[in-house]
Design brief:
This protein is an alpha/beta fold. Helix content is 44%, strand content 23%.
Length: 141
């Protein structure tokens, strides 16, 4: 199924200034949960469950941040992280996975991103995304 879900949000009372974030995960429940957490935090959220759709969205509407699962069928989130680092310097990247892998952690860092192990809660996600955003801002400055 090809779909891009846009979450409507009311960012009153949040400290996020409508930064856009693209979430990519084949797990529809995780995709929805993360989307709602980030929407509630004031982000402008786009969510995709397929690599190909996410790639197209990144080309047409480069996000301020990319939150992607490592495993995406025949592809992986590191390929999206690489595209984000090449097409949008300053794009915050957060790669998440249920599998702790030293090589994937290293590769995420090589693309200027952070690696986050699943499961996690809302506060941990927001903290990691904030750190990823700080790293990407520092790399542009």
């Amino acid at each position: 199924m090809f779909r891009v879900e846009h979450f409507a949000h009311d960012s009153e009372g949040t400290d996020v200034k409508s930064k856009s974030v693209l979430i990519v995960d084949e797990d529809e429940q995780m995709l929805g949960l993360i989307g709602h957490w980030l929407d509630d935090a004031g982000y402008e959220v786009m969510a995709c469950s397929r690599f190909e759709t996410a790639r197209d969205v990144m080309m047409s509407h480069p996000p301020d941040a990319l939150v992607t699962d490592l495993r995406l069928g025949a592809y992986n989130g590191l390929q999206l992280a690489l595209r984000a680092s090449q097409s949008g310097p300053g794009t915050a990247v957060l790669v998440m996975s249920a599998y702790d892998d030293v090589v994937s952690r290293r590769d995420a860092a090589a693309f200027g991103g952070r690696f986050m192990l699943k499961p996690f809660d809302r506060e941990a996600l927001l903290a990691e995304l904030s750190q990823a955003s700080a790293m990407s801002s520092a790399s542009v400055a």
